[in-house]
């Protein structure tokens, strides 16, 4: 029998990663951040100056990805992402990667390689996986699918707080620039032809605008436990 999977999807800034990590820790399951795989692919493209607007560039990235190894490890309660023998946990969160990643994630070959990697690494043991298409495309058999949403204003505030810890004050102009960046990524994620961001028909929607992280995690853990009890 295949190990159970919880899929957590939704737009950027809704708290997917923190929620998924908290749920995985509460259930003592593994946690997989699929966005980090796309970010590692974008980093690979940037490092080799691959031009994704050209067919030759897309072929080159596919070949490089097929020969690369993207790995995730939980070390001291923190998820690390490795690209071959380099820890790229910090590098994949750079502004340059964040700007480039939607374009990389639109490429069908990149998606197919990442999906194969994800399916290979998940399946042996119970896992919580977060992303955009986990419940719809990668693991449609997931026993619990959560679709997180939150207002654009709140998502921008969260992203700005993460990026400017103790730094610049979150004034209107700064928040507006985060809102604009998020809205653009939402649009690209929703409008792409391949595996667009959409809720699975059987996903449970959870609006996190006014929820703190602890409550989000507790709600998902409760749903997971209820379903496991029903199934046993
Ligand atoms: O969740 P994130 O911001 O780290 O995701 C990075 C990018 O990868 C984002 O543009 C959406 C894309 N992504 C995707 O297309 N499919 C996934 N399963 C996960 C992320």
Q: How would you explain this protein's 3D organization?
A:
There is one protein chain. The chain is an alpha/beta fold and 232 residues long. It has one domain: Rossmann fold (3-Layer(aba) Sandwich), CATH 3.40.50.300. It is built from nine helices and eight strands. Helix 2 (34-47) crosses helix 5. The chain starts with a strand and ends with a helix. The mean pLDDT is 93. Bound molecules: 2'-deoxycytidine-5'-monophosphate. 2'-deoxycytidine-5'-monophosphate (DC) binds at residues 12, 34-35, 38-39, 101-102, 105, 131-134, 185, 189.
Question: Could you outline the blueprint of secondary structure elements for this entry?
Answer:
Blueprint (H helix, E strand, L loop, with lengths): L4 E5 L6 H12 L2 E4 H14 L7 H12 L3 E6 L2 E6 L2 E2 L7 H11 L2 H14 L5 E5 L2 H5 L5 E6 L2 H12 L8 H20 L12 E4 L5 H19 L1
Parallel strand pairs: 1-6, 1-7, 2-6, 7-8
Antiparallel strand pairs: 3-4, 4-5
Helix pairs in contact: 1-9, 2-4, 2-5, 7-8
Bound molecules: 2'-deoxycytidine-5'-monophosphate.
């Amino acid at each position: 029998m295949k190990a159970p999977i919880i899929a957590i999807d939704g737009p950027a800034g809704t708290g997917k990663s923190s929620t998924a990590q908290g749920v995985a820790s509460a259930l003592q399951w593994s946690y997989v951040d699929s966005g980090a795989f796309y970010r590692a692919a974008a980093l690979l493209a940037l490092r080799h100056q691959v031009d994704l607007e050209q067919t030759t560039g897309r072929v080159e990235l596919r070949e490089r990805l097929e020969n690369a190894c993207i790995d995730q490890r939980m070390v001291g309660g923190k998820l690390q992402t490795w690209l071959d023998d380099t820890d790229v946990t910090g590098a994949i969160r750079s502004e340059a990667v964040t700007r480039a990643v939607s374009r990389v994630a639109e490429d069908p070959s990149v998606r197919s390689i990442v999906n194969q990697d994800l399916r290979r690494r998940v399946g042996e043991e119970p896992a919580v996986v977060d992303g955009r298409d986990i419940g719809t495309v990668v693991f449609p058999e997931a026993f619990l699918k959560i679709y997180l949403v939150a207002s654009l204003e709140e998502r921008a505030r969260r992203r700005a707080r993460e990026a400017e810890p103790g730094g610049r004050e979150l004034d209107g102009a700064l928040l507006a620039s985060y809102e604009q960046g998020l809205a653009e990524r939402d649009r690209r994620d929703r409008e792409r032809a391949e595996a667009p961001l959409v809720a699975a028909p059987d996903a449970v929607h959870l609006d996190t605008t006014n929820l703190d992280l602890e409550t989000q995690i507790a709600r998902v853990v409760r749903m997971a436990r209820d379903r496991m009890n029903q199934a046993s």
